[in-house]
Amino acid sequence: MTEELQSFFDYISASPTAPHAAAETVARLGAAGYEALREDTPWQLVMGGKYYVVRGAAVIAFRLPSELPCGAMMVAAHGDSPSFALTPSGSAVSGKYTRLTVEKYGGMLSATWLDRPLSVAGVIAVRGANGAVETKPVKLDRDMAVIPSVAIHMNRNANENASYNPAVDMQPLWGGKDAASLLAVIADEAGVAAEDILSHRLWLYNRQAPTLLGAEGEFIGSARLDDLACAFTALEAFLKATETAAMPLYALFDNEEVGSATRGGAGSDFLDNVLRRICEVLGMNEEERQCFEARSFLVSADNAHAVHPNHPEYADPQHAPEMNGGVVVKYNANCRYVTDAEGGAVFAEICRRAGVPTQVYCNRPDIPGGSTLGCIAVSHMGVRAADIGLAQLAMHSCFETMGSRDIAFMIRALTAFYGTALGVDDRGNVCLI
Q1: Lower CB count within 10 Å: N or C terminus of the chain?
Q2: How many domains does the chain have?
């Protein structure tokens, strides 16, 4: 177990939900000397300063160089993962049992959530002093619930093209009919009165600890690898990178798994507002700000599909990344990924200079794939961009698998990315500085 892998495992364990991932990211930024900014107060920035700003479960951090930056080198990942979100009531008695009441968050592999010890985490909003509404993180750090399968004796077709109705099959068992309600348990855990909980944002989470798998520990098995692997490696690279003429920026967005069209998602004005405020505080006029943007680059970092050992036919034969094969650059003809010829070339060249292997991913033409936050984010800006990730299996499962060596590859690649600045020659061609 390397120090980087142990730090990654600690990051995952501290991040059962997107709000917890944001809090863990902020804790690591704070330990590295980054100063908190607030959106509702004026900013005082100094050259060489290190800052972060939080909006809900989204975090943007940046570091100013010693002189006016020529542009920004940005990496964006997301902290949310497919799960089951608790409804406002949280739990209800149903016949002889008490069940949690949940609905799907994102597109998960439902069967992988069955017959596992699960628990609940997220944030609650409570009544504070003088009319304030305070948010508190909460995490039930013990096995609390299970979604039980129906026995094969009662459903003889269970192994044949099974389907799962979230309102019927996926409601977790919480306790007997006289069990304490979820909100009562949450209130006790948070040290507040149940009647003071005004609202909540809670999810089920898999408590199984990350682990090394494989004959030589070459794989990682864990919940939430998509997309905490990229969130962690991008953060590590951001903190390690040396100064250049550009401004390094790290973004951790929320709600990518449900479309990003939220206050803390990549479809919001969060990143655009942060960049505009930085430029304004640094004294740039509008034309200078647009020049700054044109010399900026965004890496959208979200995991990619590895070729499956049992089903290689699902991969395009010419573009089938393998775990531990290095960083994956993702392309899609219909722009589900943001990588274009220029963006892909820039990132691949940075990796080549850093000695990091790269792979290329395309969906098999007759199997539509997913999308990432990349195209959504750059639609607000004129920056160059590329979509990248690390190859993994069982994406959107309750327990996923990826290559253990790829963590170091991604940290090295993104550290090199943050250690690069973009220039533009007199013909408009991008140059690496």
Answers
A1: N
A2: 2
Supply the angle between the helices 286-294 and 270-281 in degrees, to the nearest 10.
Answer: 120
Specify the DSSP element, H or E, that contains 88. strand 83-94
Q: Which residues, other chains included, contact 240 with Cβ-Cβ below 8 Å and sequence gap of 6+?
A: 411, 415, 418
**What is the residue whose two structure tokens read 């990211």?**
25
Domain that holds residue 235: 3-81+223-432
Mean pLDDT of 59-75: 97
351 in the same domain as 327: yes
Query: What pLDDT digit, counting tens, does each position of 397-430 carry?
Result: 999 999 999 999 999 999 999 999 998 888 888 8
Q: Which stretches of 241-330 are DSSP H helices?
A: 270-281, 286-294
Query: Mapping DSSP to helix (H, G, I), strand (E, B) and coil, where does residue 349 land?
Result: helix
- Lookup: tokens for 331: 């392309």
- pTM of the model as a whole: 0.96
Spatial separation of the C-alpha atoms in residues 300 and 378, rounded to whole Å: 10
**Residue 174: CATH number of its domain:** 2.30.250.10
Is the pLDDT at 357 greater than 90, yes or no? yes
